[in-house]
Amino acid sequence: MKLCSTAHLAVLLAALAAANPDALATDPPGARRVLVLYSFRHGLAAHDGTGANEMVNRGIRTVFASSATDPIHLHIEYLDVSALPEERCFERSADDFREKYRESSIDVIIAVNYRSLSFLLEHGDNVFPGCPIVFCGVEKRRVQARGFGPNVTGVLGEATFGETIAVALRLLPDTERVFVVVGTAETETFIEAVAREEFEPYRDKLEFRYPTDRSLNGVIDEVANLPENTFVLFLTLPESGSSDTAVPSNAVTLLSQASRVPTFGTFDTYMGYGIVGGDLYSFEIRGRTAAELVLRVLDGERPADIPLVDAGTSGGPMFDWRELRRWGIPEERLPPGSIVRYKELSFGAEHKWRIIGVLTLCVAQALLIIGLLELNRRRRRRAERSLADRLEFEAFVAELSTAFGKRDTAGFGERITQWLPRVANVVGADRCALLEFSRRGARARVIHAWASEDVELAPVVSKNSNDRKCLSCKASYFKARVV
Fold first, then answer.
1. Which label site among 108, 189, 369, 453 has the fewest CB atoms less than 10 Å from its CB?
2. Alpha-carbon distance 26 to 282, whole Å?
């Protein structure tokens, strides 16, 4: 029995940790405690960590990790208003939080969306007495209608529905009508009212249509039969009887797949699930902005002295490249500064630097091979010329030997006269002479000579005893070698 109880406790702790990783974490010594209270457990959720709550949380943690001087520990809680009537949900949550945080002090509370702010304004003094509140993403008209005390500040959050209409018209200038998808719950009704006001400037040029059947299946049937020159604007989730399609990202995907016309959205949590894009409301930006206000409160500023932030929470024009291609929308129409996500790079673009490296190596190798081939060709030609010259010279010498090796001396002088120009041509001279030396070598005289037409010859006789050396000196007169 004891073993069974231990096992049950382990399972319970694991379930709690999975549902809220911060719930069982121990606060570091000296850490400041910040409670993030979400209105809905899922909100505009997705299954891959890109839901609204996750993106707000990412923005908060990013600021705390980079800017906080003291460690900050986050406690995450959910009201889950969608599961219970609001009044009953508030009462149950107040009892749970009062018991859970009875012995733990919270330094600041971040109220995400209007419902969590409303809860804290009604029950905060009893559950978290005196704790400063920084709200996140609450519409201005709701803040003005509700009012609050000096212990509250925050970030206003207005989705710019009209801006998305303007962006869509830029991409699809022939648009004649807009099919607006929105649910029927209280929050969706409020969003629809705000959107209708922002649509007013476009009513002269566009027809705005709304589903006759607000169920998801009914909306799917309608978008499958929309006429041309129409686009779908997905605001919030229609009613659904299935837990799977109750997730907005799933609903967007189903609508986009069934639609005959492009689908645009207003929240960045829909990006990647079938919308072309739009001027998207960024949950991460509003999370970062709220976290910056929390740091100011932790540094000692009174919430009453911190004005409400209305700097806008738009992440700017953002588009899905796959949907642009699907509907044949050229990127040249996108507004300046647009962010294009999910772009599928070509093989060349994806491996650009690898391809450049391989091509560079191939070119270098080709140049090296060409250089080596040219060097080898030149060496071969030089060797061939050298061999040809040698063979020619040897043939000349053989012919010369044959001509003068005969014992017959008749016509000897004529043969010398005939051969001198050939000898000069072989050695590359413009003149050639045959010298006769005296018996003792004291004198030398030219007995046969030849010169090209533009060279004048003069007889030279050496009287120097060093006849060969002197003859070499006199040979310079002929500008030729002694033969």
1. 453
2. 31
| DSSP letters spanning 313-324 | -EEEEEEEHHHH
Number of alpha carbons in the 13 Å side-chain half-sphere of residue 73: 17
Cα 43 from chain centroid (whole Å): 30
How many angstroms separate the CA atoms of 274 and 48, rounded?
A: 15
DSSP secondary structure string for all residues of 322-365: HHHHHTT--GGGSPTT-EEES----HHHHTHHHHHHHHHHHHHH
Which of 100-104, 184-188, 209-213, 436-440 has the least mean pLDDT? 436-440
Q: Where are the domains of the chain?
A: 18-156, 161-281+314-350, 414-483
Taking alpha carbons only, the member of 423, 466, 475, 416 closest to residue 441 is: 466
Question: Are residues 97 and 127 in contact, defined by beta-carbon separation less than 8 angstroms?
Answer: yes
Cα gap 160→401, rounded to integer Å: 110
Q: Are 18 and 25 in contact (CB under 8 A)?
A: no
Comparing 18-156 with 161-281+314-350, is the CATH topology the same? yes
Q: Check if the beta carbon of residue 134 is closer than 8 Å to that of residue 154.
A: yes
Distance, CA of 283 to CA of 57 (rounded, Å)? 9
Summarize the chain as % helix, strand, coil (round to 5).
50, 15, 35
User: What digits encode the pLDDT tens for the residues 320-364?
Assistant: 999 999 999 999 999 998 999 998 876 776 678 888 888 999 999
User: What is the mean pLDDT of the segment spanning 274-300?
Assistant: 92
Q: What is the gyration radius of the CA atoms in the chain, in angstroms?
A: 49
Reported confidence tier of residue 179, pLDDT bands at 50, 70, 90: very high
Query: How would CATH label the architecture of 161-281+314-350?
Result: 3-Layer(aba) Sandwich (3.40)
The gap from C-alpha 246 to its chain's centroid, in whole angstroms, comes to 34
User: Are the beta carbons of 92 and 113 closer than 8 angstroms?
Assistant: no
Q: Which residue has the higher pLDDT, 186 or 127?
A: 127
Using DSSP's 3-state secondary structure scheme, residue 265 falls into: strand
Dihedral of alpha carbons 396, 401, 402, 408, sign: positive
Q: Does 3 have pLDDT greater than 50?
A: no
Task: Answer whether CATH 3.40.50.10380 is correct for domain 18-156.
Answer: no
Residues in Cβ contact with 17 at an 8 Å cutoff, skipping those fewer than 6 apart: 23, 24
The predicted model scores a pTM of 0.65
What is the pLDDT, as a whole number, of residue 186? 78
